[in-house]
Amino acid sequence: MQGRIRYVKLYRLAHSIVIENEGRFYSLDEEAWTTTSWDALVTRDDLMEHLRHALHAAKRVHEPPLGDVEAPIGNQEVWAAGVTYFRSRDARMEESKSAGGGDFYDRVYIAERPELFFKAAPHRVAGPEEDVAIRDDATWSVPEPELTLLVTPSGKIVGYTIGNDMSSRDIEGENPLYLPQAKVYDRSCALGPCILVKDEVLPSATEIRLEIKREGRTEFLGSTTLESLKRDPTDLVRYLFRNNTFPAGCFLMTGTGIVPPDSFSLRRGDEIQITIEPIGTLINRVG
Question: Structural domains in the chain?
Fold first, then answer.
């Protein structure tokens, strides 16, 4: 392998871990992989350097079919940050006007302390090509496309993936105290398709793109860039780790800057595509 490896992509399969480097795919030299071994890998502070060395002994394989790729999560908790983009702040204020909660979102947007909340345990997380869900008791549901950080137990950001923070806007808007019910339920979270592992932070020009298809037609299309992210990801992690420990590391969603119009709500059968290059595209359907 020639030259210094700038970044790699890490895919989790049922019985193997595959590394992508410059369009070539390699299987790590192990007989079998379990949840524990995945955790042992992604909790390393030296993950990038470890993968550089591992690639020299890895076996070349074919690109794994997307249907075989699982959510890139072992025993990690998923947390999320809210109101980190101006567009999100406006949307939250609008949806909560009737409950008198709009001022809360304006204040947290400008406050030093960010909004952080628990999003999902591993069993609630959908992977690529798997179904996400909308609540039976919600009437206004949207996906929230978010750059998601992979953080080690020491609090170091070692990778990035794509996250879909499924949200029930009518439930959250009725009362801010209903946030856990609006955000935390089975298949309310999707991660994937891989972990992008790199030493450098993603540039501010990095684009996040959301496309929602309904019966084969584009129903919504929107985009933003990390330049519009008000919070520094390292500051979000620093607040998350205050009085909190994560033995298996964690994922932290960094908030959304793309909000469909108030007239839009997801329906079962909709296809959600979230693209962040160079991570890739996370595709889920509403089940």
Answer: 7-70 (no CATH), 77-286 (3.90.850.10)
